[in-house]
Each structure stands twice: as structure tokens, then as C-alpha cells.
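Dear colleague,

As promised, here are the two records you asked about, laid out in our usual form so they can be pasted straight into your sheet.

NAME FIELD: protein one
SEQUENCE, THEN STRUCTURE:
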Amino acid sequence: PRKIPVGVTMRQVVALAFALCVVQSQGFYLPGVAPRAFKDGEAVQMKVQTLVSTETPLQFDYYQLPFCEPRKIHDLPENLGEALAGEKAHTSAFKSRVKVNEYCKVLCRKNYTPQQMEEFQDFAILEYRVNMRLDNLPVAEMINFAFEDKPDKTMQIYNLGYALGGKLAPEEKAAAGSKAESDTYVLNNHLRFKIKYHPVDTDGVITEGSPDGSYIVGFEVMPFSIKHSYYGKWNASAVPYHPLTSCAGTPPNGRFERHQPQVIDPTEGGQVIFSYDIEWEKSMVKWASRWDVYLQMTDDNIHWFSIVNSFVILVFLTGIVALIMLRILRKDFARYNEMALTEEELVEANREMREETGWKLVYGDVFRPPPLARILAVFVGSGFQLFVMTILTLCFATLGFLSPANRGALLSSVLVFFVLMGLPAGYMSARFSKLLKEENQFKTAFLTGTLFPGVCFAIFFAVNIIAWSKRSSTAVPFGTLMVLAVLWFGVSLPLVFFGAFLGYKKDALTVPVQTNPIPRQIPPQLWYLQLPVSVLMGGLLSFGAVFVEMFFIISSIWQHRFYYMFGFLALVFAILIITCAEITIVLCYLHLCAEEYRWWWRSFLTSGAVAGYMWFYGAYHYFTRAHPAAHYDALASSVYFGYLTIFCYAVWVLTGFIGFFSTFQFIVKIYGSIKID
């Protein structure tokens, strides 16, 4: 047979592979974030979303307030993450065309009852903001941010959404014609949108009238409160170009005549005319960089301070563990294994062996199965499931796959990874269940697949019932709950059983010492070795390593900002893992030296105690940040504390697994390194 020249073939293969890579690299975009170019004059649709506030965790759908509506409202499709977060989007009555500036366009005229006006006022009191988006960009107000130590250095940052209304200052009330003695609030009924565009770059040349169109790279808003007026009778057929005397110029030029603000009158109701401006502005920002302004960090120095603070705690604990391993245990091993180099040291070792105390005495009880051993094995499996899920999520987020531009991606990925990690969860719980001699394999596997997610789902469902009763958009639709149930029982639970099947097929985990038939009596413990004190002390050190980053996470969620500092978060998580492991090992060694061999649950609870500190810190954050009216609101409190409890429950199981597993490896190591007669 004829031979093909190998060199030519390889060159062809390499050239073909390179060409394919180039083609793929030019056409690859993350799902949902591919650029779209708009032609000049093409209609663009603004979408409305939710009403959110920094005074309360409750969010509501845009159309739950009587705003202007289009002829037919279309609900935009949403992924699982958006549905769980309540980020519903709808079509709106706002209309625009690419590069066409328009001013004082009328959206609609509405006559409100006193009850409707009171509803607007309630939302204005709680400082609710309206969220919208255009071409997947959220609307935002541009504000100037100044550093405290450098007041002359300012930077522009975005404040997502726009304020629904605001409170009039006392000197402005008289000018507005308000005679009420109480606070007077106004409604922001006129919006000035600034849409920034970047022409499509063709062959490195940017032209104003590019035939390929333009990318939308910015979406800003400036709200106004204007009591509009008009001549004669209202002509509904002239909307959106109905002339208003409060707008200057013919046609309107973006300026206003002398006017009063649109006061919210909850006693008599009244008429409100909603209007808006559209301004298009060319920008040098490219499409790939359009999200940069939303993700700017104004506090990176504090994050580095958090990392340094956590690292100091980590070094302190590492030093203690190193002291134990390199000095105390090393000498113990040498004495037990008769490795002394001199006769004097051998005599001293024999004397100490006759009077031995501490962790060496409890070798016959250290692996005695604890009470509720099956539940411990179940939590170990669930903790391993959460651990792998967190690692995968942080890796994908750090690499940029979970960008805020891909809405709902973060929450969706967390759920998907958790469901798929049912396999290692079942495997890990089966391995420890077999070690602890639990015979009912089906019950262990079933509890592994249902105990942790079952508690989370019960809390989640209870919060949803309250949210449904209050018509909050925080409530998850029934269809989404069914999807969660299918993922749970149709995917996660079978994977748990399959993992448990693989785990039970393996031989039981081996331990270096045998367990005595009769338990050893535990001597009285000093006060600082009691379980509550140990748990509080262990949790406090771990919390000290992460509380700064937790403050930023809660603040970002509370202030409805994008949290995108996953690099910092990954570092803090790594420090948390090492801190939990080391503090649990140190405390476990102290307990073993005091002849307290019941380390199984103690190690899990000591490491998991950081979740309790997180819960109380979250509660403190709520009562210091929330509006006083929200403190006693059943829905607001249940939503916040319900989700906080789910988060802290997951942290408890995750960190408990880290402490337990590291302690187990430590104990196997030290008892496997001594000679037992």
C-alpha cells in the first residue's frame, strides 16, 4: 500500500485545527450575552422589571403599581435563576428608535384614586427604585463618588434603577402648593433616558453611519417630577406627541417651562401625566467593555485588608498546628516507637510510658461510633456535596462564565452543580456509614438525598406562601417549584442512590486501632474544654477570617448592586477552609489530651459554628439597615430571615464537613504512627 507523507499530513492537521480555532474564537460568545447591532432608525424596546428598595428586602413587580401599560403586556422568558430571584421582565409602553432624539413624549395620562396615590406614597417612603433594561443593560443613574481620604478625586459610578419618588424639603413644600403638615412626597413622572451607542467597527475604522449598525453600550436615566399642563381638552389620539405647555419649544427641545413638582396627594388623588425624553449619544466604549462601569470597585483596599486580616489569623493557627505536629507529637512518636537515640532518653521514655496520660490512653475508644451516627454520615455526605458545588461555582465565576450580563446564571449554576453533585454525596455518606456500622443502607442514602434539601425546601416554601399572600414578586411561581421538585427527585436523588451504591461496594474505611468493647470513663473537663465553650471559640476565629467579605456580600445584595469580586471570594473561601480545619484539629487535640474521645460530633459542631455567627451578623445587618416599618412586617422579615437561614444552614453543613473530615484525617494519622501492643 502507498504511504502518505507523515510530515505533510501533520502540517495539514495542525493548519486545519488552527483554522477551526480561529473560526470558533471569532464566533464564540457566552449564552445570552452575544452582541447585537441595531440599524439606524430601528425600533428598540425598553423592558420594565421590578421595584426594589434598600429599606426592605421585599421586591414587587413593575405593574403591581398602576403605571402606564402598553396595549398588551408580554412576559419575557426567564431562566431558572431569574425565576428564583424574582427578576421578571415585561414589555413596556416606552418606545425609541436608534439615533432619534425625542423630547417630552407622552406615555399616558392617568387619574388616580386616593387609595392608589397612597400606594405610590408608601413606595416613595420606603425609597423604592424602578428597574428597567435595554439590550440586556440595566438602567442606572450616574452619580459622582468621592473617596473620604481623597475628596478631590472623584469617579462616576452607577446607581441601578431610578427613584420612584422622593420627599420634598420643608422650603419646597410651599412652592409646590402643599399645605399638609406631614411630610410631602413627589412622584418622578418624567424620565430622561440617555442611550449610548458605539458604531460597529469594520476593518478597524469606525464610521458614524456604519451600514453594519451600532451597539448599545450605555443606558442611563435622570428622573424629574413635573406637574404637566396642556391647553384645552386632552386628545388621547395625539399620544405620544400630545403638546404639553410645561415643555419648552416647538417641537420640544428638552427644556421645561416654570413648573411645580408632581405631588402625591393620598387624600384626594389626582391626575398624573407620564412623559419621557430619549437622547442618543455616541460613546467610545466598546461593546465588550459596556459592563465595566457597573462592576467598578470603589473599596478594593478594604478587600485587601480583609485578605490580610484573614491571613494573619491563618498564620497564627498554622503555627499552633505546626507546634503540635513538629514538637509534641514528634516526641510522642519517638517515645512510643522506641526511637530514642540515647540511653538516658530511652529510660525517660520508659518512665513516661508507665505513667502515660493524654491522647495515647484513649486509643481504644477514639473510633467508637457516636450517637446519631447515621445523621452524622448524612451531613458529611451533604457537606461534601456543598463543598464540591462551591468549588465548581467559584471556578466558573472566577473565569468569567457567570457574568451579570448572563442574568440568573449564578443561581442557575449553583442549583445545577448541587443537583449533579448528588453522586459524590451518596458515595461519601455510604463510606462513613459503613465505617460507623450503620446497617440500613437505604435509609442512609434516602436521608442523604432528602434531609438537607428537604429542610431548605420547607423554609423556601413557607416563605413563598407568605409572599404569595402579599402579591410580592419575591414569590416563586408554582411552575418553578415543580421544576425544582423534578430536579430534586428526578435527578439529584437517583444520583445520591447511585453514589451510595458505589460507596457500599467499596471496603469499609480502615482505622489504625481497634475499639475496646467497654467504653472508657471520661474524667471531668475544665471549663474551657466544655462543648459550648469550644464551639463558640472555634466559630469565632473562623468568622473573624471572613466577616469583612460577608459584609460586602450582604451589602451588595441589600443595595441591589452587582457582586463580581469572585477572585477575592475564592481567596477568602480558601482561607475559611484552612482556618476551619486547623482550629478544629487544635481543639480536638486538646480534648484528646484531656481524655475526651468523643470527637465526631464535636469536630462537626466546632467547625460549623461559624454559621451561627453569620446568622447573628445577618440579623444585626437587617435591624440596622432596614426601615423601622420593615422590622415588624411579617413578609419582609420572613423573606430576609428565611433566605438567611437557608444560607447559614448550608454554611453549617459545609464547614462542619470540612472540620470533621480534616479531624478524621488527623486522628487516623497520629494513631497510625504509634505502636500499640
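NAME FIELD: protein two
SEQUENCE, THEN STRUCTURE:
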Amino acid sequence: SIGGIGKGHLVREIDALNGAMGEVADASGIHFRMLNRRKGPAVRGPRAQMDRDYYKDNMQRLLLNREENGMENLEILEASAEDLLLDEGVGIETLAPLADPSDVSEAFAEEGNGAERVRLEKAKALSSAKANQSNRQARIRGVVAIDTNTKERIEIESKAVVLTTGTFLRGVLMIGHDRYSGGRHLRDSEEVEPPSVGLALTLERFGFPLGRLKTGTPARLDGRTIDWDSCNIQPSERPALPFSHVRQSRGEEPPLAAVGRLIDCYQTSTNEATHKMVMDYAHLLPQYDGMDGKGNGPRYCPSIYKKVERFAERSSHNSFLEPEGLNTDIVYPNGMSGPYPEEIQLKIFRSMKGLGNVEIVRPGYDVEYDFVNPQVLTHTLETKKIAGLYLAGQICGTTGYEEAGAQGIIAGANAGRAAGAASRDESPPVPFVLGRDEAYIGVLIDDLVTKGTSEPYRMFTSRAEYRISLRADNADLRLTRKGAEHGLVTDPERLAALDMRETMIGQNIDRLRNFKLFVTDWAKRGGNDLMGGAAANRPGRESHKKSAEEVLGMPNVSLKMVEQIMADVIQEEGSGQVDNDESTEEMIMTPSSVYDTVEASVKYKSYVIRQEKDIESWRKAQGARIPPGIIYDHSIMP
């Protein structure tokens, strides 16, 4: 699956910056839902189930057809990265230095409210450039690789390298008490992809703080052996909302949704018998390297053993049965990872509703791997120890495709821009950094590089202080122009779609602002609840008017409700049934491409204004330096 609560925001932001994930997810999606729909727009998360074969094929097609997709400078080599080529030395300068916060603070005060001020404050509380330089021990020169086809050792020279090792950094696979080296199992095969050991040893030699994390994947089930009628159906939403802003601007559904090729997922659950087996066979689980043998796995996506152990009072846990594609019978039991021996996994599954006769196609397993404490990175994701070396993904301690993609686009943008400028003998480019006030990507990276992580990091909406402004529906409005300024967004259609969306949002909000009715008329047409209950009929209210914008800002009122009343009034005016002194035109409902943004912009208006003041205060504080002689003592700072 792609997306979810918090994660869906990341996918939309990646798409707004011209990343491929959203478009490929739309092209491959077979089940779409908006999570948290009953809650406010800020915490809603788009999620889609992929056809795994389609997703792989569509992504590879996009990369291989690079010229027609605007990636003519991309070259792809299938090889195993074994080690780094380095020029070693102390005090090496980076190709794209970050501004020193003290310099930024002074410039901030001088620049006033100009556009340059906005650019300068992006350096905010980043680590001192001089301190980083004194800490560097080498500069990247390239990568040592083994060609997959010829098995020859090759050296690829480069001024910048991005490491995205996933679970391969000294990876160990585990089923029961069986342990064997590998980063993951090949799909539809017993073979494993080998781990990366040389890279880990090099990072260790340069003093990078390494730790061990684990993740797990559940067994794959044979859908032909599942009693689907005993499970609760979870249909896809229609119409399906796309991740791609360009597709949204066209008013299109994802392609498989448009032709009716969506699937249903199903819900089953564990029970007390399941939980008894989970605990009875706990002694057969692997012994890990991390956390005294317990393993350091994702807190918010735990194994079935961790769920039962942690929530002993619960009699059941849900599991969603997700078909892996349109042309396969393989089913992914979401929420049921647990690397027991295969025969124990089968017993556990067969204790669950609808799975009494299920067969396992491939057993689940865990993988434990090295990660680097991300506090050794700057906000560009360049390492402080090796100039030109950038890290992204699970090597930084995160979990999930979405978090990895979000880091990848920032690391890739900064590495590419720095290397390109150096190759052309140009001055260093302005680093591409997103702040906590601009994007969930900014929250993710700021959390990682300032706080580090001791467990796999997962994105949630609760991690963002300014989530009212950082919604999934307005990611393009927040980020696409900045992406264009830094050379990431060059597609004319994407920029035109942004212009069109901005215009349509403004026009629709203006229409709501200009349409007014007496309070009593709003109440008569929409019911007293629309106008705050019986207070709508208080004496004197009959002469008081409210705009459609004001009415939409009230609780339990939707844009659809307001526009329906507007349409009725306009229709009656046309037939002479209503005398309204407000000028009106033919009613056109807000199109789906801007509906969510228009509704959220109006409903959150007062909160956004207040939050913008908080953001401005926070931005000013980012350039301040803490005096070096300050004494941290309760008597001074209680």
C-alpha cells in the first residue's frame, strides 16, 4: 500500500515536487480510501493498495523511458554498491555549504519582508557551517560496484553520492531460530538478495554512530483457500481520489478506477485462541542483535506478538486481507507479521475467522539491519563527516516507502544541484531545505537530524505543529513553486495546473464571500441547526445577513450543503420566485479538483490566520543563537 495517515501527506508533497511516487501509485492502484474522513481535513490521509506487478512495471517504464519523461540525464546501471571512493583529510569543505545561523540572523534583520528574507531564513537553526567543516574527514569521489551481469569490479566517479541502503546494511533475515545473511527475499523465490557489508564497514571506520533496527513482513496467503464470505468486506471508495495533482486538476480518476478495475479488501481478526498460540510459541521467535535480543522494531506497526504482549487486555486485533494484484491469488494479511517457524505461522492463521483452511504461499520473516543515527546529517541530508555523501531512507532510521521517498527527493535534489554546479565550476547552489512550517517532509527531516531516533520513525499528523496549514489537499500550493525555483519542477502542465487551481480556489471562495442571505433564510432552507439552533430565530435576526463563507465556517456545515442552498436560490431568482438584492450568476458547483481545498480554506480560516502568527514568531526565533556561556540550572531557569 501507499499512503495513509501522515504518509499520504508525504506522497502528495513528493508529487508536488515532481516526484514519481504519486503518479505511479495512481497508475497501479486497485483500492483507494481516504482515511480519517470523519475527522477534519488536516488529518485525513489518502491511501491506496497497489497491484505489485503493475507498480514495478510502471515505475521501471517511467525510468527506462527517461527522455520522454524529462530525465534525459539519468543513467541506470544494475550493480551492487560495495564501497565508497574517498579523498580523505580533515576540514574538507562541502560543495553546498549551509549558511551559519548567526549570519542568517543578521541578514534576517536587514532584509525586512522581502523575498530574500524568506530564502535566508530557511537556513534557520541548521548546524554551523564552520563546525561541520572542522568535523569532516573526507570528500566523496565515487562508488565501488560489482556489475550484476559481468561480475566485474567497476569504479563510478561522482562528486556526490546518495546512500539508500534500505534493509541491506549488514542485513540478517530470520524465521524462527534460523538466521541467514540477506537484505530481503526475492519475490516468488527462496533466494535472497545479499547484504551490503563493505559500506557498513566504511561508515563504521569513519565513526558514524550505527545501530540495529528490525522490520518484518507477514506470510503471503493463497486467496483460493480463504473463506471470503466469513470476512467483512472493505470496498474501495468511488470516485477514487488520485495522489497526482496534475491528474486531479484534469478531473480524472486513477486509470484502473476509471475503467472499474478496483478490488475489495476484507477484514478478519484474531481471537483468544490466536493470542494463546502467539504467546505459547514465543520461545520460537528469533534472537535479535538489538535491545538485548528483543529486537528494535516499529512501535506503530508492531508484530502480532508485540500487539498481544503490549495489549494483553484485548481479545482481538484486526487484520486486513489485501489481494496483491488483479492477476494473482496471493493475499497480504496486513498487521500479521511474526517470524515464527512456518508451521506455527500456519497454525496461527488457521485460528482466525475465514482462514480455517488457508494455505501459506511464502512464510513471513524479519530482517535486522544497520542504520545511522541521523543526527550526523544536516538538513540537506548530507553527512557531517564525509562531504558529498548523502543518506536517505531506512539507513536514517525511518520505516516506510513514503518516508524514504520524502528523504530521497531532498537528498537527491541537494546532491544533484551541488554536483552539477561543481562540474560546471559554478558557485555553490542555495541548499534545498523545507521547514517544519512548509511541509511534512520538513517535519520529518527536522525531527531526524535534530532529535535522532532510537526506533524506526513513522510519520503521523500529530508530529506536525502546523498541520492545519500542512494539509494533503494543498501540497501543490505549498511546494510546487518552490520546487520550480530550485529546478525540480519543469513540467509546463504541472505549473499550469497549479495556476489553474489557485485561480479556481480564489474564484470559488470569492463567490461564497459575495453570496449573502438573511439568517432566517439560511435557517429556513437548511434547518435551524445550520445557523446554530433555535438562536437563528431570535428577534432581530431576520434583518441580519450572513455570507455563504460565514455559514460554511460554522460547525457541521459542508460546502455541498451551502452550495445546494445557493443553487436553489439562484434557480428561484431566475424564475422570479425570490427577490434578492445580491447579484448572482448561474450556479456552478465547486469542481472536485478544488473542493477539499476550498472547504478547508474557509473552515480553517481563523485558525490559519492565528497559526501564521505563531509560525512568524517561530521563524524569527530560528535565527537566534544561544549564548555559549549560558548556565542550565533550575535556579536560573525553573
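A couple of things worth noting about protein two: The first strand starts at residue 2 and ends at 3. The chain has 21 helices and 23 strands.

Best,
R.
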